[in-house]
Design brief:
- By secondary structure, the chain is of the alpha+beta class.
- It has three domains: about 240 residues, BirA Bifunctional Protein, domain 2; about 55 residues, no CATH class; about 120 residues, Anticodon-binding domain (Rossmann fold, 3-Layer(aba) Sandwich).
- It has 14 helices and 26 strands.
- The strands form eight sheets. It has a seven-stranded mixed β-sheet.
- Helix 2 packs across helix 10 and helix 3 crosses helix 9.
- It is globular and about 75 Å long.
- The two termini are about 30 Å apart.
- The N terminus is likely disordered.
Length: about 475
């Protein structure tokens, strides 16, 4: 429970609730399965993930533009995309206890694989209900995952709409408008970040599989025939991005889909996988989707969605490469990766982490040591970048000086102000929040205009001039 590979989710969930990363949704009413709320630290973490993605995928490129489409779209969008007819998971019911399960997950948990046939799915022999142990289960049947709603005052078939199960289709239906206004040429991409909804049969693994989640999707439009090279390019780009936000390459893997498991319209699909405590699971999929989506929307809407290349005098329906990532899954991966329990020498917080030991579950804390829980976030995604403390809250001159430094730093970074408790306790609170640096204002600050900067990971403290503080933070937090 001290490293990402052995961390128990209930331990992480307890810290996330205690420190304000993630709260159970509607908890005072007993909660609702498959939905989660992000607290002050969690909302900053997710915002930093989105900002890092947007900076690297959109703002730092000349060939990608952004879009923000509505959650509810014309219902024909989902007919054209195939979601109305085919967006379904196989589910089974236990005839004894009436529990319902997603068939593929049920088989996977019991070391089996769901059998796919030309007409549907078949459970392998020996699969039992996890709740009561009964093997009297229904045959798998399709369950559409889209949430339905209605527009206007009358609830009938004519007013039926759906909450979007993905953000991609909003990009495809606005392809012509973006093409006409963004002054882009193929190859180019359209990016979107937004909420999506899937009525999962069995939400599980904390926030990993939820019914409401957030996606970061890019549709990169290309000339037909260049699919292979562009797919390879985006797989490499996306893998590098994950290491840029602090996920170690040793915990990241690529899962290349074999041809027999590809969607009928796809020529390739590769998933970026992460080693979660509950197993290796997908963070992002990068698919070569051909021209399926644009062709379908042109067919159902009656409006062509072509591209005319003035340089070659060609008119064609673009193909597309789609990197599609989940913000919530990335946040969970970052939380799992960051979590550490350590034993550190007592009273040595000012001399660095020499002598710190990775905590061992079930063993007592060594003599002259004390426990420390720390979230080792990469500075790029850390919810709070810098915390500022006056040494004593009852000394107005210290408080005023510290407050001035805090106000200066917060113009560029997310900062935290804390005057309560001993400095050691304040450090520990920031360790659990994952704050990379703490700045302490003491009496030497008043006489020499210097402050103490404490590093989260090494716990080492250094004395620097106040005039150099902003540049130091800019260098270290960049």
């Amino acid at each position: 429970m001290t490293e990402a590979g052995t961390l128990k989710l209930d331990v992480l969930a307890a810290l996330c609730k205690r420190r304000g990363f993630i709260f159970p949704n509607s908890e005072i009413y007993g909660g609702i399965n498959g939905f989660w709320d992000y607290g002050p630290l969690g909302s900053e973490l997710k915002r930093n993930i989105r900002e890092a993605w947007w900076q690297d995928v959109v703002r730092r490129r000349d060939d990608v533009v952004g879009i923000d489409t509505a959650i509810i779209m014309h219902p024909k969008v989902w007919e054209a995309s195939g979601h109305v007819a085919g967006f379904a998971d196989p589910m089974v019911d236990c005839k004894s206890c009436k529990k319902r399960y997603r068939a593929d997950n049920l088989c996977e948990d019991q070391g089996q694989e769901l059998v796919r046939t030309d007409t549907g799915f078949v459970l392998p022999a020996g699969i039992s209900c996890p709740a009561c142990g009964s093997k009297d289960l229904t045959e798998p049947r399709a369950f559409n995952l889209m949430f339905e709603s209605n527009t206007g005052p009358v609830k009938d078939d004519s007013s039926r709409v759906y909450l979007r199960p993905e953000t991609a289709q909003g990009i495809f239906v606005q392809f012509d408008n973006v093409l006409a206004t963004a002054r882009q040429k193929i190859p180019f991409g359209i990016a979107q970040v937004g909420k999506a909804f899937r009525n999962e049969i069995n939400p599980r693994n904390y926030t990993f599989r939820s019914r409401e989640f957030e996606q970061m999707e890019l549709e990169f439009f290309i000339k037909p025939g260049t699919d292979t090279e562009w797919h390879k390019y985006w797989v490499e780009e996306r893998l590098k991005w994950y290491t840029s936000i602090g996920l170690p390459s040793s915990s990241l893997h690529l899962d290349v889909h074999p041809k027999e498991k590809l969607a009928h319209y796809a020529s390739a699909c590769t998933d970026v996988m992460y080693d979660f405590p509950f197993g290796r699971q997908e963070l992002e999929g990068i698919a070569a989707r051909g021209c399926f989506d644009l062709t379908q929307h042109a067919k159902f809407s009656g409006k062509p969605l072509n591209y005319f290349d003035q340089e070659t005098n060609e008119n064609f329906v673009p193909h597309v490469i789609e990197p599609s990532a989940g913000v919530d899954r990335i946040a969970l991966a970052l939380l799992c990766n960051a979590y550490r329990e350590e034993w550190v020498p007592k009273g040595k917080d000012d001399s660095g982490s020499a002598g710190a030991i990775l905590a061992e579950p079930g063993k007592p804390v060594p003599e002259a040591h004390e426990p420390r829980t720390v979230m080792r976030f990469h500075p790029r995604v850390a919810p709070v970048k810098v915390a500022v403390f006056p040494l004593l809250k009852n000394k107005p001159e210290l408080v005023a000086k510290a407050r001035g430094i805090f106000e200066d730093l917060r113009t560029d970074w997310s900062c935290f102000w804390d005057v309560t408790g001993a400095i050691g306790r304040r450090y520990r609170r920031q360790d659990e929040a994952g704050t990379p640096y703490c700045v302490t204002v003491d009496f030497d600050t008043l006489s020499a205009d210097t402050v103490t900067v404490r590093d989260r990971d090494s716990m080492k403290q250094e004395r620097i001039a106040v005039s150099e503080l902003h540049d130091l933070m800019r260098e270290r937090l960049r």
